[in-house]
Amino acid sequence: MNVFEKNSRWNWRPLVVSAALMFLYASVLLKLGRDWLTDENYSHGLLIPFVIAYIIWLEFDDLRKVRRSPFILLGVGLICTAFLMLVAGTLGAELYSQRISLLVMLAGIIVYWFGPTLFKSLIVPFVLLFLSIPIPQILFNKIALPLQLWASSLAAKGVSLFGIDMTRRGNILELLPLGQTKIVQLEVVEACSGIRSLMTLIALGLILGYLTRDRKGAGLGSLGKWDLWRIAILMASAVPIALITNAGRVMGTGIATYYYGVNASEGFWHDIAGWGVFVVAFILMYFLNTVLKSIGPSDTAIRSDPVIAKSGSIQRSKSAYQTAALVAALVTGGFFVNWFESRAEVEVVRVPLIEVPIEIGKWGQTGTDQRFDEASERVLNATEYVMRYYYSNDSYLNFYVGYYESQRTGATYHSPLNCLPGSGWIMNEPRLVDIPVEGGESFVANLYSLQNGEDTQLMLYWYEGRGRRTANEYWDKLYSVSDSFMLRRSDGAMVRLMAPVGDDEEFAVSELVDFASAFAAESEPYIPR
């Protein structure tokens, strides 16, 4: 029997398993591909499969020589864990657990079919795939805000070195262009904070370190000890490099705006600056890698020759029966997951937020409904929202409700804790307050004192949906997951009230509580139970 015939006997198995795996994860892969296409924070994900394929191609001869010792029990355990994660994520409308389950499933199949040694050799492709998976929005917002604030702070200090007066409020930079009378505001949005280049640079640090490693270490992923440290340093360096280069971009934009006006901060020049910053960041990382390579010890002699499997370059790792069992499990799971994914959520009958009464308790609407700018609306990604002012005697407040009909696609609430500090607000004195509701019930809401220059306000907010009201965004997320499983619903809303403190803070608090209580009594048609 010739080599081609031998190979053809076994090649059908990985192909069939791959097809079954794609069937099981069809909806997950489609959504992940869509995010790569539409989310600039993870657009590098489009290149990751090709990079992984290139790495495997480079290492193919060595990989096929690795001793294969299938660990069936561990492999089955990982496969079952991945399937449970996928089912729980699908039932609970939690995208991240669905996507991470793909990594666990791939690891389980490799261990089940080839053994832990081959998985150890493929750890770098696994980490690259992990870095291309968007983290949950609730965590992303926690990361993006500090980066925005740090980038704006560095930029403001840099601009001041050129004798240009600039005021910073959160991530808002204000300056008066030369010869003009109107102050220009520069907002350090997520794109300018470094978060987008950060995710790409971390992946790039891993790729750069791996492709320039010594040939070869015997450690994790065929890496020597110093190579592992060098790659870790490169990946960690992505944080300061991204911050410094993006702060430099904002600083340059501020200086250009001072001399040439607001046009220097928009359109073509803004986009060119973005690309230029990434090029500079790559050069800095490449230089750092060169320095680390020059000062580090060589790992060339660490690794011994790979052990070749006894049966030749291609070894039967599983019997046909075991392969058939694996394929059957993947296909059966695929039918269940895809069936559930194709089911629409329970249709909820509700009244549009635009029809929230103009009179709520003793409060009456003043002025017309407010709208965010287009960029802010894209970030909010709410199905519907309403924002307006209400007035009662000498008191007034700003009322906002953002409603999400489904959180299956990843759209979710944006906590004021992440948004307001970026707009220059300092949040003080957090506490919880009880909001009474008709019938003797009550719920808990968050209360903050806000300071922005001379402006002092109070903010009251909570999350509401599916019969629950909660002050904690993490508990609300858990409730969304459980309700998606039990009720086939993941809809919900965030309600936020803001009012000036005035001369009597306790009176202002009581007014916010009064409006919250009045709205809670009437909210069910707009935020269904």
Description of the molecule:
- This protein has 529 residues and is of the alpha+beta class.
- It has helices at 3-24, 26-38, 48-58, 60-63, 72-91, 95-113, 116-121, 123-131, 137-160, 190-193, 195-211, 225-260, 267-295, 320-342, 374-380, 416-419, 473-487, 505-522; strands at residues 167-169, 172-175, 184-187, 359-360, 363-366, 384-392, 395-404, 426-437, 441-452, 455-465, 468-470, 492-500.
- The protein contains 18 helices and 12 strands.
- Strand 2 (172-175) and strand 3 (184-187) form a beta hairpin.
- Mean pLDDT is 81; it is low at 1-10, 190-194 and 301-318.
> In percent, how helical is the residue content?
40-55%
> Which of globular, elongated, flat, extended, rod-shaped describes the shape?
flat
What's the SSE pattern?
Answer: HHHHHHHHHEEEHHHHHEEHEEHEEEEHEH
Alpha carbon gyration radius? 28 Å
What count of helical segments does DSSP give?
18
Strand content range: 15-25%
Span between termini: 69 Å
Biggest pleated sheet: 9 strands, antiparallel
User: Uncertain segments of ≥5 residues (pLDDT<50)?
Assistant: 1-10, 190-194, 301-318
Give the mean pLDDT.
81
Number of DSSP E strands: 12
Which structural category fits the helices and strands? alpha+beta
